[in-house]
Amino acid sequence: MNSLPLGSSIGILGGGQLGRMLSVAAARLGYKTHIFEPSAHPPAAEVAHAVTTAGYDDIAALQAFAASVDVITYEFENIPTAALDALEALRPIRPNRRALAISQDRILEKDFLTSLGLTCAPYAAVQSLPDLEAAIATIGTPAILKTTRLGYDGKGQARIKTAEDAAEAHASMKGAASVLEGFISFSHEVSVIAARGLDGSVACYDPGENVHKDGILHTTTLPAKLSPSLRSDAILLAARILNALDYVGVMGVELFVTPQGLIVNEIAPRVHNSGHWTQNGCAVDQFEQHIRAVAGLPLGDGARHSDVVMENLIGDDIARLPQILRENDCAVHLYGKAEARAGRKMGHVNRVIRKG
Amino acid sequence: MNSLPLGSSIGILGGGQLGRMLSVAAARLGYKTHIFEPSAHPPAAEVAHAVTTAGYDDIAALQAFAASVDVITYEFENIPTAALDALEALRPIRPNRRALAISQDRILEKDFLTSLGLTCAPYAAVQSLPDLEAAIATIGTPAILKTTRLGYDGKGQARIKTAEDAAEAHASMKGAASVLEGFISFSHEVSVIAARGLDGSVACYDPGENVHKDGILHTTTLPAKLSPSLRSDAILLAARILNALDYVGVMGVELFVTPQGLIVNEIAPRVHNSGHWTQNGCAVDQFEQHIRAVAGLPLGDGARHSDVVMENLIGDDIARLPQILRENDCAVHLYGKAEARAGRKMGHVNRVIRKG
């Protein structure tokens, strides 16, 4: 396997908290990181070797960035195609373009997952109000209308309680292509943080159980409430997705647990908020796992030494920091963001459950 | 308690691996770090917000550094007095000057420890060859002659097997003030990583058991072989040292285990190589504990969720990296040093012992 020599540089598209924690993991493995980020003073800049501040339409900046690194990865999936074209001409992008294309488009994603024999919520592509009305007639209500592209943390979504909500929901998409998803009845959500190496080996962490608040992940708890057979299903299903994509890196796979088995909610071709618990539950966390994969190193096996409850600190939650710092067995991870806006992820805590 | 606001900057004297790991811990708590280091491209620079490359005799650079930060700490104890004077005129230095002065001088250190009722190996100050001969007559052989100042990892030391070695040993000190230490018969060495907060609270990690190779720490194993009463003695003794110094920060206290009880080998007023295991054994590691202390935050309680064996990667040990990366439950921490010289600390691994 062709692994990056010590001292090599890994380019990361995006300078948020995920890029920040990827940079720290890369440093721990003896690599440098170079962050590409349009906004000034991104969280990752504090702990990275180099930072380029430029937009994704600045092809010269992208080319200089690519030329300065040995491999390119990313912390978010909504990267413009032209930018990817410019980068890929110079350096490998891991995970690959196909994984990105699929996760950038909810219809492509659901078509892909369904083609693997996996179950998704019922869905239909919507371009026009008549499309939407027809989709509601087939899928029923309640349902949720989402833009096909660029969705993140509940943005670009409209709930449809009855058929009469159709016009308003359609208008809220502002002409963007969208997808109607049927509601499904599930008891809880789990996610699998899965990794695939350059050599094709796959390693998964034990699924965590997610609780959302106001459309944003609130807590992830390990272990999840899952029967042994569903736990095994979850991991095999994630591995099937990674193998089908010839994927290299870490992926987050969100699953609904239903009486009929697991339903795939969505996949994210990157380290994932629901995998932050691994920082204090495993010898090799998801950030290091991702760096190992894109650098061509052997993967960690994903074993968990401790149970963990991860809690996101959103907006004003950061005001609880003085109390949190007094808790025992509580690992604090802040992102260095100056201003606590509503809905902004300021940090997270991992509460470690010590065994006897 | 007057704690540093989020986004404050912590100045660190020294840019080696300890400064590097302190910088990562500071970032995790939402602080920036500024490294002061004479040599170019120090390991800490990769993960720090700012770096000043200047010598400790460059008073203007020291003053600019101090003015740019909110508090100053250090990763090594041999900082020139004039530099400390310049810095302390502008910003608090934590741990304080007294702790530094004592640990910079083996005689002061032993006098201090003895004054607290703690036991050290027999010792005598040596300026001249007649001093040394008299000391050998009192203390006996074998013994070890060490420079009073600037000792580190076996440098500046000469073993004295018989009285006839006196002249050669004295000559090897090159005129530096030195101290003769008697050998003591001990079964093993342990160290306590202890911390004291700005509010005077003390928290200690469980003692680790150290094995040295060629005068350099090789492994630290948790838990150490220690009876409950010696474990308690070790922690109380460390707390006594910290309280006597009105200390703020993490200190490493090396102890010899003998049939007569614990003998203090030496103290280091900083995070310590024998505390690296805490990165994968505790929710709050020694680096974060030190940053919490110097920033005036509450200390973590030092509880251990997992047993750990830490192994240093010295010089060519780094060539074993491909095998090490394939081990399960093994956390790798590299320092980003380009060249593997003999005796150079390149990184360490923490092997986590999973329970049940």
Please provide a written account of the structure.
The structure is a homodimer. Chain A is α+β, with helices and mostly antiparallel strands. Chain A has three domains: about 10-95, Rossmann fold (3-Layer(aba) Sandwich); about 120-180, Dna Ligase, domain 1, CATH 3.30.1490.20; about 190-355, 2-Layer Sandwich (D-amino Acid Aminotransferase, Chain A, domain 1). Chain A is about 30% helix and about 30% strand. The first copy, chain A, is built from eleven helices and 17 strands. Chain A has helices at about 15-30, 60-65, 80-90, 95-105, 105-115, 130-140, 165-170, 230-245, 280, 285-295, 320-325, and strands at about 10-15, 30-35, 50-55, 70-75, 125, 145, 155-160, 180, 190-195, 200-205, 210-215, 215-220, 250-260, 260-270, 305-315, 330-335, 345-355. In chain A, strands 9, 10, 11, 12, 13, 14, 15, 16 and 17 form a nine-stranded antiparallel beta sheet that branches. Chain A has a four-stranded parallel beta sheet with strand order 3-2-1-4, with helices on both faces. In chain A, helix 1 (about 15-30) packs across helix 10 (about 285-295) and helix 2 (about 60-65) packs parallel to helix 3 (about 80-90). The radius of gyration of chain A is 20 Å and the shape is globular. The termini of chain A are far apart. Chains A and B meet through helix 1, strand 16 and strand 17 of A and helix 1, strand 16 and strand 17 of B. Chains A, B: Its EC number is 6.3.4.18. Chains A, B: This is N5-carboxyaminoimidazole ribonucleotide synthase. Chains A, B: GO terms for molecular function: 5-(carboxyamino)imidazole ribonucleotide synthase activity; ATP binding; metal ion binding; phosphoribosylaminoimidazole carboxylase activity. Chains A, B: InterPro entries: ATP-grasp (IPR011761), ATP-grasp_carboxylate-amine (IPR003135), ATP_grasp_subdomain_1 (IPR013815), PreATP-grasp_dom_sf (IPR016185), PurK (IPR005875), PurK_C (IPR040686), PurT/PurK_preATP-grasp (IPR054350), Rudment_hybrid_motif (IPR011054). Chains A, B: Belongs to the PurK/PurT family.
